[in-house]
Amino acid sequence: MEFNKTTRKQRSIELIFFILVFCIFQVSYSQELNLAPGSTIVLRTGAFQSDSDSLDKPMVQSLHTLGEYLVQRPDMKIVVQGHSDSTGRPEYNDDLSLRRAKKVREFLITNYSIRGENILVKGMGSTVPIADNTEAEGRAKNRRVEIKPLTAVTNRELTDNNNNPTNEEGILSFFNGTVQTKAPWQIGFGDAFISEPIYELHKINTRTESRAEVTFTDDSRLQVGENSLVIVYGLESKEPAIKEKGNIELVKGGLLAKLKAIDKKQEYVVKTPSAQMAYSSITKSKLAVDKSNRSTVAMYEGMTEVTAAGQSIEVPENYGTQIFEKSAPESPRKLPDPPIIFTPEKDYLPWNKDGVTFTWKPKSPMAKLEVSTDTSFNHIVWSVTTRQTLSKVNLDDGVYYWHMQGVDSIGLEGKPFATRTLTVKKYNYERARLDLLSIEEGLNTVNEPDIVLMGNADTRSIVKINGERLFLQPTGDFSRNAHLMEGDNTFVIEARDSAGFENSKTVVYRYSTSRRFGFTLGFSPLVLPNKYGSLKVGADVALKFPQLFSTDQNFGINLTVGEFQINNLSEDSLRVTPETHLRFYGFAEMMLTVEGSREQRIIPFLEVTSGAFLWANYHGEYYHSVAGAAYVAGLGAGIRSNGATNAFGIIGNYRWVINDYQRFDPLAQKGIHGIFNLQLAYYVY
């Protein structure tokens, strides 16, 4: 039992050790099996016997691993280089090394259905030894097969003799957002990185709000828009296969291509699902493919030949066209002009919490605005295509570049105007500066109707008083003359600086006119409800002191004298004859005036009076005089038009004679009698 336990324990340890060794071997070998640019795979040095091209068992195992690697990468191309030692004639060694390479190619095609055009073979003979051919061990190492990656279209080696990457098409010079790339030696898409080399059949995919830029070896550039897929086939090749497929393929999205031909005979071809565009000189164009595979091309510089459905047209500079899938290209149409810019007028703007306001006058159905942090417009912080004439953009501190372009009814984007610079500078406060001079915020009491409102603000501010914009001096000073109305006059002073910060202060001026006196002319018919036939109209004059007791309250006195005549038709207790005349009356009253808003030019008001009604009664041919007095309470209404130093008004009063009314109205038996008085008034301030 003890022996069995020991045996089982020993076997378990051996099994774990074997698994670890196998895993280490697999990891090590899988790391060697890498055919990215700059890599070379050497299949078992010493695998071939001298003067033999037969594959031994270890070589076959290595080729199975290589076959599985290539099956997962159908776009990848390789070159199989056979090598020999220096034994024998050079011509024979060249043929022997080529046969060894062909054996590897045949194995991969037969067992893994690798496409024959994806595997090139070369017989290198004994020209590239890796060991000493004078020794048997060295000659065994030189009998080998090497695998190197090739460009996916033009079959150029991606690894030089020093195992360095070569023959790249360009680099990924910029990207932001989510951008992924896929090279032929990669199984799937991976995250992009700056300065990533771009090779033939490299795929670049951008997501929403993401962009990328590829700079090629000839300084040509591609700017890949958001939600786009671009395939680079290569720019330097002149082979017909390239022209048939296109140097660049835009599968979806947008592409701004600035291509530069090496010579006049060379053509770059950009292919889309519905057309292909051939360029033969320095050009700049905007291409786009929408969800229905409709292609649009706009030429900003140079010209292009567009081919679709077997028909070709030339699109010159400042023209564009659209191509529907399986349809011929439409006739070129002129690109829309950029809009006329109104704001911002300057290249420097203080930071504005409401954002920078762009306004323009359109010259096409739509306009496109782009704001970027770089002159190439790769790092775009704001992009909008709109039919409106205004757009607000919230920008932080920094330097920005912006341009606009017209967009026509089919979506062709015109050439942008020259790029403009915008510097945004943030202030270190949160309220606009607003200083009041010679005035104080809050309530101010004055006795003069004319005042001057003065203050100071930042020189780029907008200052308004009660909504009226003021002229600002170069020093930031502002002023405004104002004429006050009676009562409270409210002034709201607002400041908005160029950064968008606001501030406001409210000043109230309480102005009491302090009217010295008023002078009125009026007429006063005696109202006799029981006998209107005895009514005659008289005239009066009055002096009013409406603010005798206080300049802030309309409480004063009224003194009136006048004359009117009543013909009594029958005698009464006073033995009044038909010639009796009631004349020379007067009022001595306390007066309270209740007014409407004093800030108006035309002021309605009510007057409440209380006082004495005085009269003298002359009758008979001897002018016998009988005097009288009675208590009266009055209520009146009127309107007044205020001026700077005077006022005009009209007043109507009715005064009730509360007691002893029979003294001046002998015919009255009951009820309350009164006097109606209508006056034209003139006030002196």
What does this structure look like?
By secondary structure, the protein is mainly beta. It folds into 6 domains: about 30 residues; about 120 residues, OmpA-like domain (60s Ribosomal Protein L30, Chain: A, 2-Layer Sandwich), CATH 3.30.1330; about 160 residues, Sandwich (Jelly Rolls), CATH 2.60.120; about 60 residues, Sandwich (Immunoglobulin-like), CATH 2.60.40; about 80 residues, Immunoglobulins (Immunoglobulin-like, Sandwich), CATH 2.60.40.10; about 170 residues, Porin (Beta Barrel). Helices cover about 10% and strands about 45% of the residues. It contains 5 helices and 46 strands. The protein has a 17-stranded mixed β-sheet that branches. Strands 38-40-41-42-43-44-45-46 form an 8-stranded antiparallel barrel. A 5-stranded mixed β-sheet has the order 23-29-28-25-26, with no helix packed on it. Strand 33 and strand 34 form a beta hairpin. It is rod-shaped and about 170 Å long. The protein starts with a helix and ends with a strand. The N terminus is likely disordered.
